[in-house]
Amino acid sequence: MQTIKVKNPILRGFNPDPNILRVKERYYIIVSSFEWLPGIRVYESKNLVNWSHTTDILTTQVSLQGNPTNGSIWAPQISYADGLFYLVYTDVKSAGRPFKDVHNYLITASEITGPWSEPIYLNSNGFDPSLFHDLETGKKWLVNELWDYRLDTPNKSSGIVLQEYDAEKKKLDGPIYKIFAGTELAKTEAPHLYFRNGYYYLMTAEGGTGRGHSVTVCLAKNITGPYELDPGFPMLTASDKPASTLQCTGYGSLVQTPSGRWYMTYLCTRPLNGAAILGRETAIQEVYWTSDDWLRLKDSQTTPMEEIMIETNEEVQQEKDHQFMDTFEGELKKNWNAGRILPNADWCDTKCRPSMCRSGRRIYAGIHWLPIVYNRWSHPISFSTRKDLYDGKLVTSILLICIRNHFASRLPTESFKNCIYW
After folding, report:
1. Which residue in 237, 286, 244, 296 sits closest to 265, CA to CA?
2. Is residue 382 part of a domain?
3. Where does the pLDDT of residue 96 fall: very low under 50, low under 70, confident under 90, or very high at 90 and above?
4. Which one of the listed residues 17, 91, 206, 230 is annotated catalytic?
5. Calpha distance 419→422 (Å, rounded)
6. 358-393 tens-digit pLDDT
7. Which of 38, 142, 228, 279 is close enough to 56 for a disulfide, judged by CB 3.0 to 4.6 Å?
8. Strands 19-23 and 189-196
């Protein structure tokens, strides 16, 4: 075995809400995609060190037109049982307060690349669903955040609920159990269940996705509770560590390697002058179980670490070259996304002229569709453009725009020069 130095984040740029899974010798991480299609990006690795974008799961199964900005696909979770991949996710139709219009679904596939089934509706009482396959009893259970609009607090997350999923009936069945009300950190969400050494473990995110973001763990002898809170909670947070490179850390999920080591992936940001210009990213860290059965970060107490060590079967080096180039010849590469609609030949033409991608419809700046293709930035970038001359008039052939906190560039015309801003 080899021990490799790895630098976090392992998935840079817009890769929020990571959920990790191992199937045999392969590891998978999936991330939230919000209003961008194709949805739910899948990364694959053989060693936890280097990750490649393998596929995207959601294509025709969802309709996102009319969904709000920052709504749509939240917090997917993937699991494997009975020879199938199970994927649960939330489709957010309204993200306002006090009411949220959220719907949780399940799809399955025999291969990670699909084809995936049509969605099975689960519930609408909250978000962040997670499916647990209980090998002790053979039952399947769904946990999710419970949104209670009646609360008089600004945030309406009132805890975590559990209900059995009937795989034959393809629906939730039986009583709903509220298994965790959360701590004073509040905003309890992102639940995942694990079983180890006779205990059921409930891992949640708390404190919101800002600087208070944290990971909290509880345990119970019975899956329906009562759950005992980790006396040393939170087990991960950067809320009291302003000097840490990694901030807003939370939303943890666990994986065990074939050699028995445990690792946790989690969400983080790297703010620059207060703004996380590359978005929410994915980090990883080794964890271990104490003699009294609690989960702890290895070598760092509760601190997120930028540099970590990962055990691998062979000598590897973390890849640092993330160059991406598209000459727009043939089909669009899978790196591209579009807002609420799939990129397709109806409006995204890569064959009209060599090395050119042209949108064939007007840009509609609303919540139904945007006929523009986008790419996720993972590093500071440089780019080149070309100006075309038609009938003596200067025409620019590319435009980069600003999406929230990201840099943007407007190309030169006769009225203004190049500029970069945020």
Report:
1. 286
2. no
3. confident
4. 17
5. 10
6. 655 555 556 776 666 666 666 655 555 555 555 555
7. 38
8. unpaired
Is residue 379, in this structure, part of any structural domain at all? no
Direct distance between the N- and C-terminal alpha carbons of the chain, in angstroms, rounded to an integer: 45
How many domains would you assign to the chain?
1
* Per-residue pLDDT at 104 exceeds 60: yes
pLDDT, tens digit, 9 for 90 and up, residues 135-180: 999 999 999 999 999 999 888 999 999 999 999 999 999 999 999 9
d(CA 159, CA 143): 10
Omega prior to 191 cis, within 30 of 0: no
Token digits for 252?
């943890």
Distance CA 62, CA 342 (A): 10
Sign of the CA dihedral with 172 first, then 97, 374, and 397 last: positive
Contacts of 238 (CB under 8 A, 6+ apart): 211, 213, 244, 246, 247, 248, 249, 268, 303, 304
Structure tokens at 282: 């994915």
Q: Which residues pair with 217 in a beta bridge?
A: 203
Closest CA to 188 of 231, 226, 224, 151: 151
Domain span holding position 283: 2-312
Half-sphere exposure of 232 (CA within 13 A, CB side): 11
- CA proximity to 97, closest of 57, 46, 148: 148
Q: Tell me whether residue 76 is in a domain.
A: yes
Q: Say how far residue 60 (Cα) sits from the centre of its chain.
A: 20
Active site annotation includes 189: yes
Tell me which of 128, 145, 164, 189 is the catalytic residue. Answer: 189
- Is 102 a domain residue? yes
Please report, for residues 91, 125, 158, 166, 221, the alpha-carbon distance to residue 176 in angstroms, rounded to integers and kept in the order given.
21, 11, 14, 13, 18
Which residues does 374 contact at the CB level (< 8 Å), separation at least 6? 36, 336, 337, 338, 339, 403
Where do we find the tokens 């709504």? 71
CATH number, domain of 208, equals: 2.115.10.20
